[in-house]
Amino acid sequence: MDMLDFFPSSILQAADTSWQTVTIAQRASSAFRDHDLSGTIGYLLLGLLFTAGLLTVLGLVLIYAERKLAGHFQCRLGPMRVGWHGILQSAADGLKLLLKEDIVPENADKLLHLGAPVLSLMATVLTLAILPLSPTLQVVDLNIGVIYVTAVTSLGVLAILIAGWSSNNKWSLLGAMRAGAQIISYELSATLSLLVMVLLSGSLQLSEIIQSQSDGWWIWKSHLVGVIAFVTFLISTTAELNRTPFDLPEGESELTGGFHTEYSGLRFAFFFLAEFVNMFVASALIVTLFFGGWMPFYIGGWDGFNSIMGLIPPGIWFAGKSAFFIFLLMWFRWTFPRLRIDQLMSLEWKILLPVGFINIFLAALIVLFEWHF
Amino acid sequence: MWNEAIHSLVFYFLAGLSILTAIAVVGSQRILRAALALAGVLICNAGFYVLLDFEFLAGVQVLVYVGGIVILVVFAIMLTSSVELVENHPSSHRKWIGALAASFFFLVTSSAFLSSDFPVDRNALRSIADVKLLGRKLLDYGAEGYVLPFEIISLLLLSVMIGGIIVARKAPQSEKKK
Fold first, then answer.
1. So what's the ipTM on this one?
2. Which residue of B2, B58, B63 is in closest CB contact with A154?
């Protein structure tokens, strides 16, 4: 059944090191317990600033990376003029978007039209707060982490639907309906893959899921089940992100711009930012669930190699691993052609969902009989 | 003391917000805004669960009600009505029946509220809030387990799903010709 049985079971297992995790929220509450008011407020502010800073930096870096990569995939140079190799291009674009006129269509539902981008960005920021970027770099460590992530991402769907409806434009409405149908469908198989990892690690808490991989990442440890869960999760998150091959909701040739056709200026920037940061959130989740989160890459028995790997700080490991998956998502965009709507739906309901159900059954068997390493 | 103060401050904030959004659900002229206000009420309820240390229930509340039911409602609205749709003036006959039903519902809920006392047992809450215990309780077929209602609900959902597929399915070509 599994290919990984050919390896001696020790080869991909790491030295057992336990990591002490301290989140910003824990620091704030311990300061509160010691009646240290300035410390409490300081840590709360630090949490807010960290999330806001992460959002800004991710927005700038990811948009630059997307444009640069798109350029090189097409044998172009990409942005080159603003700063060294165009490195300030995103900042210049951001400034342009801030200064642009903000147009609200004549017969739009004004309140909802203005509120939808904010809701979309809010859903993204709320997920950023619980990502474990390193043992000490996490704002809150909820004990229902995985459920929280799925619950909050569903708010993003609501934002897209409201945006499409309130624009009073048929392209927007059609784009929003497509996006909603697509995200709701693919959410099912993404959640099934998440459940497989919850079964294997025995916890809903993101930091505990990482801790459970201290003797080897789940992608190595869980036989074929983890690999299938990883592949379905990768496909379904790409669909949830509305990225090519699944970018029907905003296919320019069919729908002009999809649900954000009527948006301009700052409000368009909100949607844009939310989309790019969601890409990071998806990659970070893949890293957390399947690739050991902040854990370094160890090979069992190679002590010299392992000690060199251990020197690299966990935050760098997390950033590097998620950067790889972001690169993969951008690579997909220039590799695969767009699916047709019926192909999209049959891929989810006829292939991914049955595979997901069988996979979760197999995972339950593996956990029950403790077949995993 | 600080703990209590913050706790009750958050509680009254959530309570006020949920009452306001609940009024908006029934008072709004535009039906999509009413649906969104409903999402607001449900999120406030999730906030109450968090205050009671029921994080799991709060997560499930947002996941099922906001992520599932409200989005379904929004979809239904988008598929059936136009942007301009404002609630048309109902006939007096409908108004009377509505008022009667509402007052009966008010009577039933207020009598239930007045006739029951609400004991606070924090330890009992804590023990249920553990997800592992919750899972074991759901699949326990002993005297205190909930496996029978759990299975009945899943059967009900299955039959509803099959019913939905049959209703939504296109009639085959041969039957149409008859």
1. 0.80
2. B63
